[in-house]
């Protein structure tokens, strides 16, 4: 007789899988900056090769909504566990194959074509990951611990980024640039094959959630979950997408934009900025778990409003500290924004998953998260960079970030507390405008 795994083990499995997925997704970005322009786009000029490699990198973000739609459809019809395993396997196979891919010198134009195809597959895999991992953690959790357990897939994102950054930092320390360009860049991709085996073993041991099993027994399984979620919960989709802007915006702002800002505008070394982001990942992980527990205790909606409001205000003093170019103040300023981001991300998974009925929950939560990722991870950085180029001041960038965070804060205000804080203590009852489940 097998023992049913507890919610803590389920959360750990969601975390490990999320770490692996985001490790895979991020090592491509690091390899893009280091080697792909020379190995796969050598016929371009140096600038053209870099742009072509970055375009191939961006393809992964375009594919993420496709992965969310596919995984959402089958996750609501077949089950959460099956799609979690499928997304992990999809990502792992694509990443390992990139590590085995012949370069332009070996097979010509087929090399960049296959690279783009595999990046598309990577995007599909990671697009289906978050919704399934969040649902498995939240639906298995005790009602008064849903935000805490839901934070585990979230901390997989900075953890995966941290591991990938350390992997490439190690490569640059161990191998010469020529060796790195020749073959050593493949090692992090091939190592993914080992990680995938570990992830599959961990995820194979988890069970399907009781909420999905009850929906299946009651035959409350939507034939077309995507159509059904737009029909039954259009307002939740709208509000959920808007509230999902802030987290990805701040994540990309801290890990990508500020690294570029520190090197180009403050003339700090890229190594200094990279190490600052690596060190920041540790308190980021710890604060996100603390924020998840606080959201269960004090209310997920309340904590989300506090986090997004803090971020909208704190971005201005953050730039005052960062612009000194003194490393301790740069770190302190970024830590302040990391704390605000942690509060947002600690509450978000439990909120998003509870906004939708079980029969369309995978689809609804995945769509909202990926819409937020496209806006926050893709569009907002471009707007921020354009604002700085036009006005020549960090205040313009701070206004862009602040407005996005305010949009997320305002989006959550009309959602009734009972919908977002299911199972959480409710020390006081307040009347909110309702976005009812239709």
Automatic annotation (TrEMBL):
Coiled coil: none annotated. It comes from the Bacteria. SUPFAM superfamilies: MFS general substrate transporter. Keywords: Cell membrane, Membrane, Transmembrane, Transmembrane helix, Transport. Gene3D superfamilies: MFS general substrate transporter like domains. It is found in: Cell membrane. It is a multi-pass membrane protein. Residues 10-420 form the Major facilitator superfamily (MFS) profile domain. InterPro entries: MFS (IPR011701), MFS_dom (IPR020846), MFS_sugar_transport-like (IPR005828), MFS_trans_sf (IPR036259), Sugar_transporter_CS (IPR005829). The keyword Transmembrane helix applies. The keyword Calcium does not apply. The chain crosses the membrane at residues 12-36, 48-70, 82-101, 147-171, 183-206, 237-260, 272-291, 303-320, 365-385, 391-413. PANTHER family: SHIKIMATE TRANSPORTER. This is MFS transporter. The lineage of its organism: Bacteria, Bacillati, Actinomycetota, Actinomycetes, Pseudonocardiales.
């Amino acid at each position: 007789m097998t023992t049913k795994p507890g919610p803590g083990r389920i959360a750990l499995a969601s975390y490990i899988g999320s770490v692996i997925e985001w490790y895979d997704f991020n090592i491509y970005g690091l390899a893009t900056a280091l080697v792909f322009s020379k190995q796969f786009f050598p016929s371009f000029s140096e600038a053209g090769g870099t742009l072509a490699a970055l375009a191939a990198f961006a393809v992964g973000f375009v594919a993420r909504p496709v992965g969310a739609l596919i995984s959402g459809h089958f996750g609501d019809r077949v089950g959460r566990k099956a799609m979690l395993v499928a997304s992990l396997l999809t990502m792992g196979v694509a990443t390992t194959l990139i590590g085995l891919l012949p370069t332009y010198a070996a097979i010509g134009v087929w090399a960049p074509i296959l690279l783009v195809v595999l990046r598309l597959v990577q995007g599909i895999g990671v697009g289906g990951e978050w919704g399934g991992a969040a649902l498995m953690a939240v639906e298995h959790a005790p009602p008064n611990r849903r935000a805490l357990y839901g934070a585990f897939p979230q901390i997989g994102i900075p953890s995966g980024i941290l591991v990938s950054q350390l992997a490439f930092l190690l490569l640059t320390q161990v191998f010469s640039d020529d060796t790195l360009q020749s073959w050593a860049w493949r090692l992090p991709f091939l190592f993914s094959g080992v990680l995938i085996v570990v992830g599959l073993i961990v995820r194979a041991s988890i069970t399907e959630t009781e909420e999905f099993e009850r929906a299946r027994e009651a035959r409350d399984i939507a034939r077309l979950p995507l159509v059904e979620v737009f029909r039954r919960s259009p307002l939740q989709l709208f509000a959920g997408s808007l509230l999902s802007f802030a987290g990805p915006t701040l994540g990309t702002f801290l890990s990508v934009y500020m690294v570029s800002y520190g090197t180009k505008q403050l003339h700090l070394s890229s190594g200094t900025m990279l190490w600052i982001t690596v060190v920041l990942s540790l308190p980021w992980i710890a604060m996100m778990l603390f924020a998840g527990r606080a959201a269960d205790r004090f209310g997920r909606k309340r904590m989300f409003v506090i986090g997004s409001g803090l971020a909208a205000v704190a971005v201005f003093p953050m730039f005052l500290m960062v612009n000194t170019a003194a490393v301790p103040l740069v770190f302190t300023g970024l830590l302040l924004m990391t704390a605000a981001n942690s509060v947002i991300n600690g509450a978000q998974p439990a909120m998003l998953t509870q906004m939708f009925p079980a029969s369309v929950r995978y689809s609804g939560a995945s769509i909202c998260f990926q819409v937020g990722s496209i806006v926050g991870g893709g569009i907002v950085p471009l707007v921020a960079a354009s604002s700085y180029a036009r006005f020549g001041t960090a205040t313009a960038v701070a206004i862009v970030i602040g407005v996005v965070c305010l949009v997320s804060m305002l989006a959550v205000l009309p959602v009734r507390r009972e919908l977002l804080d299911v199972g959480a203590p409710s020390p006081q009852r307040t009347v909110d405008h309702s976005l009812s489940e239709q």
